[in-house]
TrEMBL record:
It catalyses: N(6)-carboxybiotinyl-L-lysyl-[protein] + acetyl-CoA = N(6)-biotinyl-L-lysyl-[protein] + malonyl-CoA. Pathway: Lipid metabolism; malonyl-CoA biosynthesis; malonyl-CoA from acetyl-CoA: step 1/1. Its EC number is 2.1.3.15. Keywords: ATP-binding, Chloroplast, Fatty acid biosynthesis, Fatty acid metabolism, Lipid biosynthesis, Lipid metabolism, Metal-binding, Nucleotide-binding, Plastid, Transferase, Zinc, Zinc-finger. It comes from Liagora brachyclada. This is Acetyl-coenzyme A carboxylase carboxyl transferase subunit beta, chloroplastic. Zn(2+) binds at C34, C37, C53, C56. HAMAP family: AcetylCoA_CT_beta. Acetyl-CoA carboxylase is a heterohexamer composed of biotin carboxyl carrier protein, biotin carboxylase and 2 subunits each of ACCase subunit alpha and ACCase plastid-coded subunit beta (accD). Acetyl-CoA carboxylase is a heterohexamer composed of biotin carboxyl carrier protein, biotin carboxylase and two subunits each of ACCase subunit alpha and ACCase plastid-coded subunit beta (accD). Residues 30-290 form the CoA carboxyltransferase N-terminal domain. Gene3D superfamilies: 2-enoyl-CoA Hydratase, Chain A, domain 1. Belongs to the AccD/PCCB family.
Length: 290
């Protein structure tokens, strides 16, 4: 083989190899890049760390099902009121019919609405727990979310259990109008009866917790916990700045800002949340028993 033929063959082999490499498909979702620090992680490693970046401690969004796995003891979850579904009492339409939007959300998330409620154990301590899911219409609070949380709290009161609500919501669901706003008072009344029975209620504020949720049950806890750097607010930054005609601090409406000003009691990373909840529940149970 001449030198020119050998070089030509090598060139063809390199071209073929390059083409083969381009055709190798890497499945989506295997690797996750941190939005804050840019660290590239294998998705299973991220899930094992409760969806918290091991380098910068950025908390990725977590679904209600993922939080059930993260917080509760294995096989202790018992969902309640799973059959409740939203209707369209106002015949509301924005970019699409509200009924169609609900159907799309159910198909996309596998959920009936924006909260899962149930009973379970945290380090063998029984609790009643509600977990909001931002994937379902931004975790907005409509009639079903309000009814499920109210029934959860009433069950906790009847069974003399501590109640925990993991908050993740854009606020009241505008497609249900006044009916959504009524849920604020309904849930708050149930919490008052729960409190009168001497029982513990802990809201855990995740990012985001805003609007009518912040204005009601998210801020009515005996101990209010938040995840680091969570967005916690009632109205948006721009609305407030336009109203008061002043610029707000850069960290305004974050967990850290609210902690400094006494609005929340603890900031706990998600990786430590289960153990810290167990510690609080244990201390409260012993106090009540004594």
């Amino acid at each position: 083989m001449s030198l020119s033929d050998w070089l030509l063959e090598k060139k063809n082999l390199r071209a073929k190899s390059s083409t083969n490499n381009r055709n190798i498909a890497i499945p989506d979702g295997l690797w996750v890049k941190c939005d804050k620090c840019g660290l590239l992680m294998y998705y299973k490693a991220l899930n094992r760390n409760s969806k918290v970046c091991p380098q910068c401690n950025h908390h990725f969004p977590a679904s209600s099902q993922e939080r059930i796995t993260q917080i509760l003891d294995i096989d202790s979850w018992q969902g309640i009121n799973n059959s409740l579904i939203s209707t369209d009492p106002l015949g509301f339409k924005d970019q699409k019919l509200y009924g169609k939007r609900l159907k799309d959300m159910k198909n996309k998330t596998g959920l009936q609405d924006a909260v899962q409620t149930g009973l379970g154990n945290i380090n063998s301590i029984p609790v009643a727990i509600g977990i909001m899911d931002f994937r379902f219409m931004g975790g907005s609070m409509g009639s079903v979310v309000g009814e499920k949380l109210t029934r959860l709290i009433e069950t906790a009161t009847e069974k003399k259990l501590p109640a925990i609500i993991i908050c993740a919501s854009g606020g009241a669901r505008m497609q249900e109008g006044l009916l959504s706003l009524m849920q604020m008072a309904k849930i708050s009344s149930a919490l008052q009866r729960h409190n009168n029975a001497g029982l513990l209620y802990i809201p855990v504020l995740t990012s985001p917790t805003t609007g009518g949720v912040t204005a009601s049950f998210a801020m009515l806890g005996d101990i209010i916990i938040a995840e680091p750097k969570a967005l916690i607010a009632f109205a948006g930054r721009r609305v407030i700045e336009q109203t008061i005609k002043e610029d707000l601090p850069t960290n305004f409406q974050t967990s850290e800002y609210l902690f400094e000003h006494g609005f929340i009691d603890l900031i706990i990373p998600r990786t430590n949340l289960k153990q810290k909840l167990a510690d609080i529940l244990y201390l409260h149970r012993n106090h009540v028993n004594n």
